Amino acid sequence: MQFYDKKQTLHFKNVSFVSGFTLAGPKEKQGKLGSTFDLTLEDDKFGEKTFEKAERKMFEYAVSGAIAKANLQPNDIDTIIGGDLLNQIVSVSFAAKKFKSSFLGLYNACGTYVESLIIGSFLTEFFNKNVLCVSGSHFSTAERQYRYPLELGVLRSPVTQWTATGVGASILQRHSDGCPKIVSATIGRVVDFGIMDVNNMGAAMAPAAKDTFTQYFIDTGKKPSDFDMIATGDLGKLGKEILIDLMEREGYDFNNNYIDCGAELFYEKQKTYMGGSGAACSALVTNGWLYNNLKKGNIKNLLLVGTGALMSPTTSFQGESIPAIAHLVEIEMGQKES
Q1: Whole-number Å distance between alpha carbons of 248 and 243
Q2: How many domains does the chain have?
Q3: Same-domain pairing of 34 and 121
Q4: Are 198 and 295 part of one and the same domain?
Q5: Contact 166, 22 (CB under 8 A)
Q6: What is the rounded average pLDDT of the residues 288-301?
Q7: What is the pLDDT at residue 154?
Q8: What average pLDDT does range 310-319 have in this prediction?
Q9: Rounded mean pLDDT of the chain?
Q10: 35 falls within a domain
Q11: Residue 268 falls within a domain, yes or no?
């Protein structure tokens, strides 16, 4: 491992992203990227009595699906790393009971998936382990934890985003030809822009994304035009525009090759307002559409930033502003399979 800078950006030599599996909910199935998911649900209770039990089951299926897709057996996975949005990350923790792998539970809100890739890359690089990184969320469980029970029928703010229902899982290994490689990572800092509106996640998270992107470009000497694609996890349409403006003020042009996973997930007619969010958002788009394009060679290098709003119902009730985090991974397509 080589640090570009003593603080935040580091380089990996041996981390291959060998498989990605996606399980998505009914609304996501009907969205722009519905055809790219491996498994989609017709019923967002997934045959369970509660949404919370459905979310746990989604994690179990996604972990098993990623293992099978990589032609591995459950016992081949040394460590599972992941998180969700429920208190004490119970969805992924309870799902991990079904597997014999060691387990690291994470929470960085909607930035959890990229955080899992960074920690998974450390384990893969230094300990030659097969690591499964997983992150997910469920609209109905998140709504009643962070906002209101669905039964109240509360009107949604026009700046709000729709928590994605789904789980994305990735398997990392050392030295696997023909697979994308995770070649560097920038670990984010907590940034608080003073946003108080719990509906306006994009505005809260965009400054954290700006901070991490800027640090990465300073550390490496690279620029946005060096990449085929730059993607944020779930700033949504408003947060995306805020980030473009913030990066322009720093001297970086994000107008040509930048997308936001949340803004790409749904059609306008689905009335998700600013688009998708949640711990599933970047995990679904990365392990589906982005991974497929990396494997095909349509994307040769990608900067992926996961953003998370580090609030809780307790902090919101006590009048706190919303701090945020953003983590970055740089992914390159390795040598194509012959």
Answers
A1: 8
A2: 2
A3: yes
A4: yes
A5: yes
A6: 96
A7: 65
A8: 90
A9: 93
A10: yes
A11: yes
Place of tokens 């398997």: 171
DSSP state for residue 251 in the 8-state scheme: T
In a domain? residue 338: no
Are the beta carbons of 107 and 114 closer than 8 angstroms? no
315 Cβ neighbours under 8 A, 6+ residues apart? 322
Pairing between β-strand 162-163 and β-strand 276-277 as defined by DSSP bridges: parallel
Bridge-based pairing of strands 2-3 and 131-137 is unpaired
20 lies in some domain: yes
Read off the pLDDT of each residue in 182-204 and give the average, rounded to a whole number. 93
Residue 220 sits in the same domain as residue 267? yes
> Residue 30 carries which side chain, given as an amino acid letter?
Q
Domain containing 308 equals: 180-333
Q: What is the pLDDT of residue 129?
A: 85
Domain match, 138 and 37 both: yes
Q: What percent of the residues of the chain are helix, what percent strand, and what percent coil, each to the nearest 5?
A: 40, 25, 35
* 307-338 burial code (b ≥16 CB/10 A, e <16): bbbbbeeeebeeeeebbbbbbbbbbbbbeeee
* 122: Cα separation from own chain's centroid: 18
At which of 122, 140, 174 does a domain end?
174
Instruction: Tell me the per-residue pLDDT of 233-259, one tens digit each, with 9 for 90 and over.
Output: 999 999 999 999 999 999 999 999 999
Tell me how many degrees the CA angle 250-205-291 measures, rounded to the nearest 5. Answer: 90
The model's pTM:
0.94
